[in-house]
Amino acid sequence: EEDPIAWITYFFPKYAKYEFAPFHVRAIRRIIEHDEWYEVLSWSRELAKSTVAMFICMYLALTKRKKFFVLASATIDSAKRLLAPYKINFESNPRIRQFYGSQMTLGQWTDGEFTAKCGAKFFALGAGSAPRGARNEDIRPDVIYMDDFDTDEDCRNPETLKKKWDWFEASLYPTRSISEPTLILWCGNIIAKDCCIRRAGEKARHWDIVNIRDKNGRSTWPAKNTEEQIDTVLSNISTKSAQAEYFNNPVSEGTIFKYLPFGKVPSLRKFKFLILYGDPAYSDSRKKASSTKALWLIGKYKGVYYIIKGFLARELNATFIGWYFDIMDYVGGKTNVYCYMENNK
C-alpha cells in the first residue's frame, strides 16, 4: 500500500498488462497524494484514462482513504457501464479477496449502487439525475468522478451544454462536504471548443492533456501503442476525427485554429512532400489599408500537421513572388515541394 504503482500492478494484472508510461505514474501519484484535489485527465483514446481512474478509486476504497464514490456519466446506462468493472473486481478478484477478504455484502448489491465490506459505497449517476442528499451513513460523497460526460450532440447545442454544466456545479458538486477533503476527477477528451471537459479543465488544480503522439510525433505510450499501430488506425479515419479523438484538437471546418502547439519540426527529408501555399491578395501596396499577403510552407508527418515557415505582410506583388524563391532556397531540395497560389480573380 505504500507504493500505489506496485499495488496496482499486483492487484490488477489483467488490466495493467502494459508497463505504465511516465504520465500514468505521475498522475496516479499526484492524485493519491492529495486528499483535497480537482483534476482533469484529457488523455487520448487508448491511453487508459478510465482504467487508471479505476485503479485510483479502488486503491482509495480498499485502503479506506475514501468512503463514498459517485460515478457520473452522460446517461445512467453509461454510468452503470463505468461502474461494472469495479463491481466485478469486488466480487471476483482473487487477490483482493485474499488480502482484504470478500467484499460482497447482503442487501443492495446492484449494477447501479453497492457498498463493499471495506465500507466504501459506489453510486452510478446519469447527468441530470437528482443527487441531492446522497450519503453513506454520515458521509457525503468524498470522490466525485465524471467520465464521458460530454457527448457530440450536447456540445453542438449551447443550451444543452449549459444545462449539463449547471447540473454539475449546482446539483452534483455541492453534494460534497465543505469540511471534509474531496477528490473531483474528470476523464474525457476535448471534443469541442466548448464542452464540460474544457470548463472543468479551466477550474482544475491540474489539467493533464496527453495525446496519442507527443510533439515530436512519437507514441506517448510505446509499450502499448506502436508507431505502426497508430499509423494503421489513423489512416482509416478523417483528419478531423483523428484530431478530436487522439490529439485533443476539435476541428470545425471554416473556423480559426486557436490552439496551435509549438514544437520542433522534423528534418525536411522525412516528409514525402511539402506544400507551399500563397494568398496574393488584391492589392499591390504596403499601405495599412491594403490587404495582407501570405505564403506558408506546410507538411504532414506521422499524422501531425506542421506549419513550417512562411511570410505574412502587406507587400508588393514582386515581393510576394520573391517569397516563393526564398522558401525554395530554404528547403534546398531536401524533398518535393508543390507550389500553389490562391486564385483571387
* Unreliable parts: none
Biggest sheet character:
7 strands, mixed
Structural class: alpha/beta
Report the strand count.
Answer: 11
Mean pLDDT, as a whole number? 92
Helix-strand pattern: HHEHEHHEEEHHEHEHHEEEHE
What is the first-to-last residue Cα distance? 71 Å
Widest sheet: strand order?
3-4-2-5-6-1-7
% residues in beta strands: 15-25%
Q: What's the name of the CATH homologous superfamily of the largest domain?
A: P-loop containing nucleotide triphosphate hydrolases
Helix content: 25-40%
Rg calc = 25 Å
Query: Could you say what the CATH architecture of the largest domain is?
Result: 3-Layer(aba) Sandwich
What is the CATH domain class of the largest domain? Alpha Beta
Indicate how many domains the architecture comprises: 2
Query: What would the CATH topology of the largest domain be?
Result: Rossmann fold
How many helices?
A: 11
Approximate shape: elongated
Notes on the protein architecture:
This protein is an alpha/beta fold and 345 residues long. The protein has helices at 4-11, 22-33, 49-62, 76-92, 94-100, 152-155, 158-172, 196-203, 227-234, 239-246, 317-331; strands at 37-43, 68-73, 113-115, 121-126, 143-147, 183-187, 206-210, 273-279, 293-301, 304-313, 336-341. The protein has a 7-stranded mixed β-sheet, sandwiched between helices. It has a 4-stranded mixed β-sheet with strand order 10-9-8-11, covered by helices on one side. A hairpin with a 2-residue loop joins strand 9 and strand 10. The longest helix is centred in the N-terminal third of the chain and has 17 residues, at 76-92. The model has no long low-confidence stretch (mean pLDDT 92).
